[in-house]
Design goal:
The longest helix is centred in the last third of the chain and has 25 residues, at 311-335. The protein has a five-stranded mixed beta sheet with strand order 6-5-4-7-11, sandwiched between helices. It has a five-stranded mixed beta sheet with strand order 14-13-12-15-16, with helices on one face. A hairpin with a 2-residue loop joins strand 13 and strand 14 (229-230). It is built from 14 helices and 16 strands. By secondary structure, the chain is α/β, with parallel strands linked by helices. Helix 1 crosses helix 3.
Length: 404
Amino acid sequence: MRKIRTGDLKLIQELNRSIILNMIRDHGPISRSEIAKRNKISPTTVASAVHELIKEGFVSEIGVGMSNGGRKPILLRFSPDNHFMICASISNSLIEVARMNLALEITEKQTMAIHEPAGDKVIATTLGIIDQMIADGGEMTNFIGISVVTPGIVDKHTGMIHYNAKLNLSNVNLKRMMEERYGQKVWVENDTNAMVLAEKKNGNYEGYRDLLYVTIGDGVGAGIIIDDTLLSGARGGAGEFGHTSVDRSGIRCECGNVGCLENYVSWPAIYWRILTLISRGRTTSMIEMAGGDRNAISPLVFNKALNEGDALATDIADETTAHLGAGIVNLINLLNPEVIILGGELIVESDVLLEKIKAYVAKHALCVLSDKLQILTSTLGQEAKLIGAASVLLQDVFHFSLSQ
């Protein structure tokens, strides 16, 4: 029998600890004996791990449960408010920074619009907000780290933002920069990867092993989990769905390619199309809905008009569906997911657009791959990106696997 090395023993202890904490978090109040029974872990191991978790403030005892003939068991519950983390989302148009507890609840939040997408300024602004939040936070003993998500090609291992054209970010080692600045561990991940992780661990999609998260908003991206494994790619570039070509003679993209999907189905592309058609004399209820101000036409206004049958909104939705549907069909035929989750401000408020996409997929995807496929919407709400950032941190800190 191979001798168990110190490193192996430590790994086993960490895995047991994560299993026990996850059990308490998901199924508490629960007793030590029930944890041992459900997970086939020795009572001594459970007792030792629980002792450390209580000492560190992650778990607390809350009283006694029903007896099955012997001593009444002491019940345990997860204590999310004893620790906090700072999570940030840097999108193409908005910076969001939040202080969150371990139940993914926001206790403080600050936002700032991005008007000038200059990389250095965006990073400096984000750090300034975090500086202030830390300064206002008081006691830092129970601060467990910072997690940042952003679009683009992001290497989660090094924390390097390799490329984001819209924000003018190139080879920015944000993880190293922030760890040197704050003296705390920092996680940096692509935002769509973070959101598909959050849907799997904290949304309504825990039972799926093969799922795609497609977001349509300021940009277009895809987060991919296949066989319970998040696909990141060699440099963090897996899922750059918005930069797949749908028209080789089409619009020149800022990435240098031609006909990228993002230039046809993102909100900036749709908004530009709305203004173009209005300037050509098309009438639409969207102007009235926006209070007579074309600049105030938003995804919410567009979806409201679409849901009410506005002709211009319907035409644009049909054009969008043709491009987006073709891209999604390619993903289905390539990756064969069980479920596709559609997120982002453009899609979550529009049953009409969702149904159009479903109809396109049913018509064009390989039948054997699409007949049982579900196309649904995000369950994380308006704070999806921040919840995604928190999920990245928690998965690493507590060694939660996707299949737990």
